[in-house]
Every structure is written in C-alpha cells, then in structure tokens.
Amino acid sequence: MNQFQYYTPTKVIFGKGTEEEAGELVKEYGCKKVLVHYGSGSVKKSGLLDRIFRSLETAGIAYISLGGVVPNPRLSLVYEGIELCKKEEVDFILAVGGGSVIDSAKAIGYGVTNEGDVWDFYEKKRTAQACLPIGVILTIAAAGSEMSDSSVITKEEGWIKRGYSSNYCRPKFAVMNPELTMTLPEYQTMSGCVDIMMHTMERYLNHTENMELTDGISEHLIRTVMKNAKILLADPENYEARAEVMWAGSLSHNGLTGCGTDGGDWATHQLEHELGGMFDVAHGAGLAAVWGSWARYVVEARPERFAQFAVHVMGVEESEDVMQTAQKGIEAMEVFFQSVKMPITMKELGISPSDEQIAELAEKCSFFGKRTIGCVKMLDREDMRRIYMDAR
Ligand SMILES: NC(=O)c1ccc[n+]([C@@H]2O[C@H](COP(=O)([O-])OP(=O)(O)OC[C@H]3O[C@@H](n4cnc5c(N)ncnc54)[C@H](O)[C@@H]3O)[C@@H](O)[C@H]2O)c1
After folding, report:
1. Which of the four, 16, 30, 43, 203, has the lowest number of CB atoms within 10 Å?
2. How far is the C-alpha of 120 from the C-alpha of 364, rounded, in Å?
3. Where is the Alcohol dehydrogenase iron-type/glycerol dehydrogenase GldA domain (predicted)?
C-alpha cells in the first residue's frame, strides 16, 4: 500500500426530505448573500427550486439565482456567474443539480476569489489559492462532484473540456435525497451508474500491490452499483436502489477507493472529456463507449490486475491463463454496459467521427502532443488515436 492523504471535509445529509434543511445548513456558514446556481428545467418543473428558495427565506438568508447550466458546463456562464457574484457581493454558492451545476459553481467560486482568468487553472497555467464556500443539493447520482476536489468545464472557443482539482472547492455540505433522482430519464440514470463505476475502476486498475481493504471496498462498490442499476432499469422508483447508487456515487469519487493506490489510471476519463467537448455526449455513456477499447489496448501491461477485476467483480471463473481471464472480464463488463442500455462504441453513442475528427480528438487529448495519459500503460497521441479508432 502506498502512502496517502484522505481528506473528505464534506458534511453529508442523506435521506428523504433533507432538502428542507438547506436554509439552516447555509446559515451555519454565516454568509451574507447566496447564489443559488441551477440548470435548465428539471429543478423548476419538480418544484425543488421553489422549496429551496422557501427554505432560505425561512432561515433569513438573502439570495440571488443563476440558472442555465447545461451538461458539459460552459465557460461563458462561469464568467457571467463570476461577474454577478462580484457585483452582488455573494459569499456562498448553493448548487442545485448534478455534476454540471456543481462544477460550474466551483469554477465561479474560483473566479470570484482569485485574480485573473479562471480558465488558467483548467489549462494548468496557475493554481488556485481559494474558492468560495459551496453547498450542494444533489439531483443526480453520477459525477460525485458533491464530495470531490475536481470540476470540469468546457470552453466553447475550440470546444475544449478540461478538469481542475484542488481541495479548496470541496463542498462544505452535500444534501442527498435519493427521491430527487426519481425524475431522471432512464438514460441519465444508467449513464450516472457507469460514471460511478468508472470512478472506482479508474483507481482500481493500477500498478499497486497489497491493497486488500481498498480493493475490497472498490470491488463491492462496483458490484453494488451494477446490481442496483439493473433494479432501477426495471423499477426506477425503487428508493433503496436509488439510495445505494447515490451513496456509491459520493464514495466512489471522494478519494476513498483511491487510498493507497498509485493514483489510478484516468485515461478513459481523459479520452471521454474530448468526446464531451466536441460532441456534447452524456459523460457516463461516453465512458462506456471507450472503456472496452482502452482496456483491450492496455491489458497486456497489467494482466494480473485485470484478471483480479474479472474474478472479483465480474464473476469470471479463475483459470491458469491469466490473460484469458483478464480478457473475459473486459468482455463481461461490455456485456453489462449493453444490458443497462449503455453504448460500447461511439456508433452506439450516436456519433460517427471522421478520420480527421479522430485525429483532432487525439490532438486535443494529448494537449497537442505535450502530454501522455494513463498509468496502467502510458499513452501518447498515437495510442489515443488508435483507441479512438477502435472505439469508433
Ligand atoms: N467534478 C467532478 O468530480 C466530476 C466527476 C465526473 C464527471 N464530472 C463532470 O460532470 C458532468 C456530468 O455531470 P452529471 O453526470 O452529474 O450530470 P449533469 O449534471 O450533466 O446532468 C445530466 C442531465 O440530467 C438532468 N438532471 C439532473 N438531475 C435531474 C433530475 N433529478 N431529474 C431530471 N433531470 C435531471 C440535467 O438537467 C442534465 O440534462 C460532466 O461534465 C462530467 O465531465 C465531474
């Protein structure tokens, strides 16, 4: 097991009706004015936004609001939010939504508290020194941004999607009522399940030996999400299944399943970010579409680990042929993705990039040849192009 730091400062308020506590929770931070940040329609339609406003009013909290966050949240709205917060002297952001809203709130929080262009952080030109405090009312179990240190933003100019991580942006609190996720379309629920699984799979597929406890937590988390994704496919209003998936979403990306690892691989996420930036696809579905191609490309670099995954997670029978076991595990995961109506190719994802677009995806993903990605096997621009080609 490697050395590690485990820092998870987010207070979790979990269960039915917990969103009613929003006002009192925000009050604990002694703020003067709150920005309520949200997306496009579902929180208005469901009446959730009005309930949050009422809760803030009852607690005597002044607030303004900014909606309009779209999936793959845009930099232009982040700039608008920064200006608004500065003008209105906002000192707390309450994000009501999923990963896109929370990430947009985090970027606004950076922009208000740091000088210069906030995009510099996402381009890795500078590091942030602060962020406004952020609270979350979660409406979709997926990204895990409600407890994570990261945010992912898309710059419209060039359609570049980039992530930035720092502990400053970890939310102060996350309110999680599984009932709020029952209005999600099936595709978003399943896409969320894939993202949750992938956050742990990215950490699990690594080069570290001897991680009995972290491996056990990870394997059980992935199996739990697989089991409950299938329940939700048949019974989307199953509260217990919604609750298991929601809690898994937070634990999968708050650092727990990475304790003692070498940091994990993350190549699938980097490959998907370019798909999200260029084609605006749902993040989890995009991950499912490229994961198998990535896994087949790198499996030779770490067959024992893939074989452990196959046996402990996918229920593949152990055999003396480690490579064969490893490959059976990859196939079994693709079969699972299809069983929950997730794509395993870009075609199934609904996009058909040309050869030139594939080359552009690899260019962008490699930061125009300046970076490699992955740890199971380090990948350069040509490797990325080949994986994209295979996934097409
Ligand atoms: N910051 C992180 O740690 C992190 C980790 C992984 C992914 N991400 C990023 O997060 C974004 C994806 O976030 P997400 O998967 O949470 O989804 P999302 O926030 O993009 O929401 C997906 C869709 O579901 C809708 N929606 C949300 N809640 C709903 C509800 N209760 N009922 C009906 N519709 C609802 C949204 O309006 C949206 O159209 C991507 O940009 C991804 O790259 C961030």
Report:
1. 30
2. 17
3. 9-178
